[in-house]
Specification:
Layout lengths: L2 H6 L2 H7 L1 H13 L8 H11 L5 E4 L6 E6 L2 E11 L26 H17 L5 E9 L7 H7 L10 E8 L7 E3 L2 E4 L1 E10 L3 E2 L9 H19 L6 E10 L5 E2 L2 E10 L2 H21 L3 E10 L2 E3 L1 H15 L4 E3 L10 H7 L2 E7 L24 H19 L5
Parallel strand pairs: 3-4, 3-5, 5-16, 6-15
Antiparallel strand pairs: 1-2, 2-4, 6-16, 7-14, 8-12, 8-13, 9-11, 10-12
Length: 406
């Protein structure tokens, strides 16, 4: 068969043929971003795009999550593909014609692209249903941006029936060349927890600090002590990030306030280090405060767990990408990403992998492109065809061969 004929019959060719629909859906979702666990407008767009396909739709009770199930012509394994739907609570300043029409909300993390790519993958795989042995579950999930949407869908039982054998997700990044897919075995993304420290002292006049107990310098000392804790007590080969991102205290320049409130985030790529950092933040804050006759109250709010990729799942994605897009289209990620993902909850239940696909804007240097969560983040929509093809190739390869031997 000639290269032209091979390309004509390829999944990438099918995805490219669907590009006008993929782009149109992505832009429609982008213009009307929704936050958190409640994304009814986005879900309605998804349902409209899937109308008429041989899919069974099931919705959750606790959020606007939905699965669409494609039963192949023959029995076999079941594979899940995930696309998230929610946006971020931030303004948009990207130089595009289809900017967000919702004040204070923006698809700055590519979930609009994730959703539209998954819809187009469903269309292609439905058209190939007669060649499919097994089931494909398309997971349309809200609430990824800190709202634990995947866990809500799991708790709703949406992933119980049919029973999932493996699960895969694809996340865009402007900081890779177009169409390049990357992943690694083991920890792919970090855990994400939040903490709050309230330092309590005794108020007074700012001209007479010796008659008060000033919590402000104590809070500052806690910040630097936490950084020393990270660099001196945490294994450099099992890293973490502790960031104090807000400090609030005081009411006037001539007043020593009684309290200072600090908040921040902590990230780790192993549960062992995550636990150690939880303990360390409490110990450091409480004892530094005690040394200065203050009191520190520490609250830690657990967030997403570490995203752990199964080595067999990564090997399958690599084979699917290289088989469909070529040898140079896949590269092993050299290190975990310190961002977090609630697809981690799914991967705690079944083997699989979270991968990233490059969508660097045309003419930009991918190393300098505005990253996800930037108010100026853009993506190259041509890359979405590659993402659609990767979804399809991953699902078909798993249903045909299962996970490779470990």
């Amino acid at each position: 068969m000639s290269d032209t004929a091979t390309r004509h019959n390829s999944l990438l060719a099918a995805a490219e043929a669907l590009q006008p629909e993929t782009i149109a859906l992505r832009r429609a979702i982008h213009e009307e971003p929704e936050l958190g666990l409640d994304t009814p407008k986005t879900l309605a767009k998804v349902k409209a795009a899937l109308a008429g396909l041989p899919l069974t739709l099931k919705e959750g009770s606790s959020c606007t999550g939905m699965i669409a199930v494609l039963d192949g012509a023959k029995p076999g394994r079941t594979v899940l593909l995930r696309g998230d739907m929610d946006a971020l609570p931030m303004p948009e300043d990207a130089p595009i014609d289809f900017r967000s029409k919702v004040q204070g909300a923006m698809h700055a993390c590519g979930h609009d692209a994730h959703t539209s790519m998954l819809v187009s993958a469903a269309k292609i795989l439905c058209a190939r249903r007669n060649d499919i042995a097994g089931r494909i579950v398309f997971m349309f999930q809200p609430g990824e941006e800190g709202h634990h949407g995947a866990k809500f869908m799991l708790d709703d039982g949406l992933l119980d029936d049919p029973k999932i054998d493996a699960a895969f997700a694809l996340h865009i990044t402007p900081n890779l060349p177009v169409g390049v897919v990357t992943a690694k075995a083991g920890a792919m993304m970090a855990s994400a927890d939040e903490f709050e420290v309230i330092v309590r002292g005794r108020g007074g006049h700012s001209s007479m600090p010796h008659l008060a107990v000033d919590p402000m310098p104590v809070a500052c000392e806690i910040v630097t002590a936490l950084q020393a804790f990270v660099t001196r007590r945490i294994d450099a080969f099992d890293p973490c990030v502790v960031t104090v991102s807000t400090i609030n205290g005081g009411t006037a320049q001539n007043v020593i306030g009684e309290t200072v409130r600090m908040t921040g985030t902590l990230r780790a790529i192993s549960e062992q280090t995550r636990t150690k950092v939880h303990e360390g933040i409490r110990r450091v804050a409480e004892n530094v405060a005690r040394a200065h006759e203050c009191k520190a109250e520490v609250e830690i709010k657990p967030g997403f767990p570490v995203t752990i990729n199964d080595a067999r799942g990564v090997a399958l994605v690599e084979a699917a990408v290289k088989g469909e897009l070529g040898e140079k289209a896949f590269m092993r990620a050299p290190a975990p990403v310190m961002g977090a993902e609630d697809f981690s909850y799914v991967l705690q239940r079944v083997p699989g992998a979270m991968s990233f696909i490059g969508v660097c804007p045309e003419g930009a240097d991918f190393r300098l492109a505005c990253p996800c969560h930037s108010n100026k983040m853009e993506l190259n929509e041509a890359a979405m065809a590659h993402g659609v093809a990767v979804h399809c190739a991953t699902a078909e390869l798993f249903l045909r061969d299962g996970l490779p031997a470990g």
